[in-house]
């Protein structure tokens, strides 16, 4: 909540309400991902306003082999990606630099895995408290 | 009274919009230039300077505090307006946090005399604080904090009052006097006075004897012998999570934790807490995480509201649920090897990604200096919608301890998901209107003692509305298990993550064995397991008895995988057995069965697994509220029910199509993956 307040104040739009209810309608899309080499579907939900933001998301990727720096560079150049971080667990986070949408790049990974074992778009999860 | 409207730019220390009052003066205040004060470069518009007198800091500038305390002092400044407090310098500033509203000064990590962290390692810490009034006037003070040594060794409970001696030393109590206020109640069971936890007697999950289990719900179970607590009271003579001054760290990955809460602040570890993906204040808007944190580790003997199960453990908070990036989750789950237990009271319905178990695998491999972090998970609350914990891959792998929810009559809560992958049960309650539920902390001032707003209802005596007695869901059951395990890890720090699971299973209390007897199985190794309860209710005392009496850790983990292709139809409304033979023999700890089947409505299936030792468990019941051919890419089910059995022999997977819908499916492949030793 504190972040929202600061953002609103910064933009000078305290108290403004969205009146275009259609823009808040969620678009649900089933997206194929690779999970340890198996193609699975995950649900991606977003509003029309969030569409370009979603399409520009990067990826979380695990390879089926240890990747050298050179191989990562080649992977970045081939797919229009930029390495952001390698996580403790061995996953890589890539940002997208290509003009192709996240969905298009993901489709390409399914067709041409390039040693990818697991890939999912780097979008927020939607876990619920129990 | 003047009306003052401040318009603050980003970076303002405080925001006050539309203060009501009689007049209509708008005020401007410009903070004076100061190189130390980057955090209040706010510019306010104010037609009339109201006050140019700076606050006066009247609190001490030299304090001495025994090691292992988190809360140091309240910085107090006098002024005619509101004052905010900041740490602005000093050699050791990074080790401290101040509540800017209240001036409460705390360690981020807690001081350890034997391992001084101050710049010159002499146990004298130096910081500079600033008090700023609402007009931007400011005052500074240098504070020296001297840490003194105390005896931290665990010598038991000399006066037998339910508080270990070393904690009595920490709290400056008399460890030879079991009733310091001479009111006839031993110190460890006080619910009033300076050391009493005000609502301790309402916390039936901690102590059912004479506990008023009504929670104001109208369901008064006082006097009924249920044996419905976590069996921790005896443990408290020796273990409370304090761990001789090196507290067990429990992590709450949730909506955040109110780090300034009066009953949590002493136990917060802000050096290991996360605000998103950076170390920082874990506070969030949602109350859920603060409720979970209080169940595990709200402070005892401080004259405040409730007691956590491990009341001297430290809490590492995370507000991840409010900004759910995968990167931040991985960081919280894997980053710090001192974090012993991570509680996760959340999940998703039907999720089949394995990325999360990869994160946990890193944690069990590297956490606790290689002994492995413990991950406790809520089983989910969708029993009413045919939910099952086996529908979440995050729960159907061998790393987490998946927890079902119990009511205080030792039967499962109406919402608690079943699942052959359940490990143990913890207490929760159904709904506070019908059964006793769990008393815990909530964000300060966010509950109500007059009326009914569901999960935030509190006792009428909770005048500041900082607590609630209405916490329920498998969300509250999971932290009862996490808190119990914190006590076990203090007693037996060398347990590997697999040993913790094994001992929990071995010692769990079998409950409700009359009303639902058909759901209990006793396997050939003597373990009882139920798809409603796992191995039963967690029993921390029995776990400690087991691990402190000659227990030897399990041998290294082994793994067997057998895959068989079938391409065989299961006819409509009929059952078919599929046999997979395993040639190798290991002692089973965990079994995963992945079935690939193209039924367009796979939820028509009931699937049972029978081990070579003839132990049978239900992998999934029919009626799951999901459509489509969700098993077509292969669906992994898991079971704990064969713990301790041998793996060698024929495994029978019985798949029953329970509906004559005309739709059928073909089993193309079954893969069995067995972990053990």
Write the layout of secondary structure elements.
The complex is a heterodimer of chains A (130) and B (677).
Chain A: H1 2-11, E1 26-35, E2 38-47, H2 51-55, E3 59-63, H3 69-79, E4 81-86, E5 92-96, H4 102-111, E6 116-121, E7 128-129
Antiparallel strand pairs in A: 1-2, 3-5, 3-6, 4-5
Chain B: E1 56-57, E2 62-66, E3 71-74, E4 77-78, E5 83-89, E6 96-98, E7 104-107, E8 124-133, E9 138-148, H1 165-170, E10 249-253, E11 274-275, E12 278-279, H2 288-297, E13 314-318, H3 326-334, E14 339-344, E15 346-347, H4 355-366, E16 374-378, E17 400-406, E18 424-427, E19 438-441, E20 467-471, H5 474-491, H6 497-507, E21 520-522, E22 528-530, H7 540-547, E23 558-570, E24 575-582, E25 588-597, E26 605-610, E27 616-620, E28 635-639, E29 649-657, E30 665-676
Parallel strand pairs in B: 2-9, 10-13, 10-14, 14-16, 16-17, 17-18
Antiparallel strand pairs in B: 1-4, 3-7, 5-8, 6-7, 8-9, 11-12, 19-20, 21-22, 23-30, 24-29, 25-28, 25-30, 26-27, 26-29
Helix pairs in contact in B: 2-5, 5-7, 6-7
- Beta percentage of chain A is 25-35%
Helix content of chain A: 25-40%
- Global mean pLDDT of chain A: 85
Any guess at the CATH architecture of the domain at 33-121 in chain A? 2-Layer Sandwich
Q: What is the spatial order of strands in the main beta sheet of chain A?
A: 4-5-3-6
Low-confidence runs of chain A (pLDDT<50, min 5 residues)?
1-20
Distance between the termini of chain A: 21 Å
Number of helices of chain B: 7
Distance between the termini of chain B: 76 Å
Largest sheet of chain A: 4 strands, antiparallel
Structural class of chain B: alpha+beta
- Provide the gyration radius of chain B in Å: 27 Å
Notable characteristics:
A: 130 residues; alpha+beta; Alpha-Beta Plaits; four-stranded antiparallel β-sheet; two-stranded antiparallel sheet; 28% helix; globular; B: 677 residues; Rossmann fold; six-stranded parallel β-sheet; four-stranded mixed β-sheet; 11% helix; elongated
């Amino acid at each position: 909540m504190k972040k929202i307040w600061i953002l609103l104040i910064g933009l000078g739009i305290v108290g403004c309400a969205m009146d275009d209810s259609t823009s808040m309608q969620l678009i649900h899309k089933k997206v194929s991902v690779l999970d340890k080499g198996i193609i699975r579907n995950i649900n991606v939900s977003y509003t029309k306003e969030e569409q370009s933001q979603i399409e520009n998301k990067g990826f979380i990727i695990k390879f089926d082999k240890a990747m050298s720096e050179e191989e990562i560079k080649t992977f970045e150049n081939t797919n229009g990606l930029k390495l952001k971080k390698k996580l403790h667990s061995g996953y890589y986070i890539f940002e997208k630099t290509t003009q192709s949408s996240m969905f298009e790049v993901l489709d390409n990974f399914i067709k041409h895995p390039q040693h990818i074992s697991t890939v999912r778009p780097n979008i927020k999860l939607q876990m619920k408290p129990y | 009274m003047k009306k003052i409207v401040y318009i603050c730019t980003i970076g303002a220390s405080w925001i006050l919009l539309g203060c009501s009052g009689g007049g209509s003066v708008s005020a401007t205040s410009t903070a004076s230039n100061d190189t130390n004060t980057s955090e209040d470069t706010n510019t306010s518009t104010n037609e009339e300077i109201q006050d140019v007198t700076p606050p006066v800091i009247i609190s001490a500038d030299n304090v001495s505090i025994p090691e292992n305390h988190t809360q140091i002092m309240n910085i107090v400044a006098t002024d005619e307006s509101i004052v905010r407090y900041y740490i602005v310098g000093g050699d050791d500033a990074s080790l401290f946090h101040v509540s800017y509203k209240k001036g409460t000064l705390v360690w981020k990590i807690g001081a350890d005399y034997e391992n001084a962290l101050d710049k010159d390692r002499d146990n004298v810490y130096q910081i500079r604080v600033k008090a700023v009034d609402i007009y931007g006037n400011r005052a500074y003070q240098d504070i020296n904090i001297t840490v003194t040594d105390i005896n931290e060794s665990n010598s038991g409970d000399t006066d037998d009052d339910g508080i270990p001696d070393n904690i009595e030393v920490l709290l400056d109590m008399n460890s030879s006097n079991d009733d310091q206020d001479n009111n006839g109640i031993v110190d460890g069971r006080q619910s009033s006075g300076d050391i009493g936890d005000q609502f301790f007697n309402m916390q039936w999950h901690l102590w059912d004897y004479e506990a008023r289990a009504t929670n104001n719900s109208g369901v008064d179970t006082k006097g009924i012998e249920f044996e419905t607590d976590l069996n921790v009271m005896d443990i408290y003579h020796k273990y409370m999570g304090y761990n001789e001054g090196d507290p067990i760290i429990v992590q709450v990955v949730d909506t955040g934790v109110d780090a300034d809460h009066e009953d949590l602040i002493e136990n917060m570890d802000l050096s290991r807490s996360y605000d998103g993906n950076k170390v920082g204040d874990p506070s969030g808007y949602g109350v859920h995480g603060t409720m979970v944190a209080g169940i595990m580790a709200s402070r005892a003997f401080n004259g405040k509201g409730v007691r956590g199960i491990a009341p001297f453990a430290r809490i590492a908070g995370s507000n991840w649920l409010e900004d759910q990036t995968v990167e931040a989750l991985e960081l919280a789950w894997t980053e710090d090897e001192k974090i012993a237990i991570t509680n996760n009271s959340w999940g998703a319905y039907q999720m089949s990604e394995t990325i999360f178990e990869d994160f946990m695998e890193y944690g069990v491999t590297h956490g606790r200096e290689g002994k492995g972090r413990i991950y406790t998970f809520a089983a989910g609350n969708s029993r009413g919608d045919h939910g099952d914990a086996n529908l979440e891959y995050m729960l159907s792998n061998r790393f987490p301890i998946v927890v079902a929810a119990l009511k205080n009559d030792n039967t499962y809560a109406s919402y608690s998901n079943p699942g052959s992958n359940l490990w143990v049960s913890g207490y929760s309650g159904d709904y506070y209107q019908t059964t006793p539920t769990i008393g815990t902390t909530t964000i300060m001032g966010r509950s109500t003692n007059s009326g009914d707003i569901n999960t935030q209802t509190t006792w009428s005596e909770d005048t500041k509305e900082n607590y609630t007695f209405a916490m329920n869901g498998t969300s509250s059951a999971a932290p009862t298990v996490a808190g119990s395990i914190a006590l076990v890890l203090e007693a037996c720090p060398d347990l590997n993550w697999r040993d913790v699971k094994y001992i929990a299973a071995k010692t769990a209390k079998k409950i409700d064995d009359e009303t639902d007897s058909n759901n209990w199985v006793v396997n050939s190794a003597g373990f009882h397991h139920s798809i409603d309860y796992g191995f039963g209710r967690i029993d921390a005392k029995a776990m400690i008895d087991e691990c402190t009496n000659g227990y030897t850790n399990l041998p290294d983990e082994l793994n067997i995988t057998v895959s068989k292709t079938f391409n065989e139809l299961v006819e409509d409304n009929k059952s078919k057995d599929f046999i997979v033979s395993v040639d190798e023999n290991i002692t089973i700890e965990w079994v995963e069965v992945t079935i690939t089947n193209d039924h367009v409505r796979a939820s028509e299936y009931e699937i049972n697994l029978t081990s070579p030792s003839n132990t049978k468990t239900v992998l999934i019941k029919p009626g799951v509220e999901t459509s489509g051919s969700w098993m077509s890419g292969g669906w992994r089910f898991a079971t704990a029910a064969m713990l301790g059995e041998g793996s060698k022999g024929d495994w029978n997977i019985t798949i029953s199509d329970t509906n004559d819908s005309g739709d059928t499916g073909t089993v193309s492949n079954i893969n069995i993956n067995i972990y053990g030793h």
